[in-house]
Amino acid sequence: MKYSKILIDGNNVYHRFYCVNNGMKTKLKGTDVQLKTGGIYGSIKYLQSIDKYLSNLSNSRVYILFDNFSTRISNRKEIDPEYKSNRERRNPAYYRGIEYLQLILLSYSNKYSLIYRSNYEADDLCKPLIETFPKDDFILVVSDDQDWARLIDYNKRNVNWLFQREVYDKYAFNKRYGYYPSANKIILYKTIRGDTSDNIPVGLPYLPENILLQLLNDYENIYQVLNNLNDIDYLHKEWRQKFNSCKNRLMLNNDLVEYLNIPENEIFSYIYNCKFNKLALILLYNALGFKISKIDNRCVENQEKDVVQTFINREKIKRM
Length: 320
Known about the structure:
two-stranded antiparallel ribbon; 41% helix; single chain; alpha/beta; 320 residues; Rossmann fold; DNA polymerase, domain 1
């Protein structure tokens, strides 16, 4: 299937290939800095493979969304100081690699855009972005983070989720996970089950899966569950008591998993439209030690001539 809009979790893609291609590294010219380049190289090749899903319509576009890695997700840490405290702070070269990847992407394609905003995570930016698209657009969101599955059929739009090489609509998701996806349902699931990757503890330990799935089919959020405990006939007395005893943790989890509110009209301030620049790509690929013929064939032909001609024909600067 072809999509007119593709939204990609940039941090997720970079981290995956940083780990897979851990042996790839280069020494930056003129410095003593050893930069691991596997995350950059793998991300570029992966994005090229995603291009096959993009339609040829004039409004087709790929949006690559990034967490602002220089912050500590401060909005959610105000709710719970332990949020993501289990995430290892990596060495500066890891984050330098993300910066190089962003520089490459800014010059990579006229159909690409980068999006990020301080103190917000990439999936928070998806919802207001999608709301700016025409309602008949077919949209693909790409991430190994299940938070992104909240966008499947978001607000009755045509949104699918690419996860581990499989594309999920609501029916495929239901077949795998046992319930139909929505922002509320996935938030309720993670509110009860927690999320180890974000250091969100289990809200209610040991709740049987069949009871959890029944709750997901019957209720939209944890507040509905808590307000109707006495009317849920498949919850034994002991489970009702456990829900009440874990009430504070469950409500805290809900606030951590819930989308942070970004007004739709603000999202345009965080979009950086990219533009193909062959010379910039050649210089960046060379600086990172990449063999250009293997990473980007568009930059192979007459690359040395292009660099020389651009230098010779550069704009003359008037002497003062």
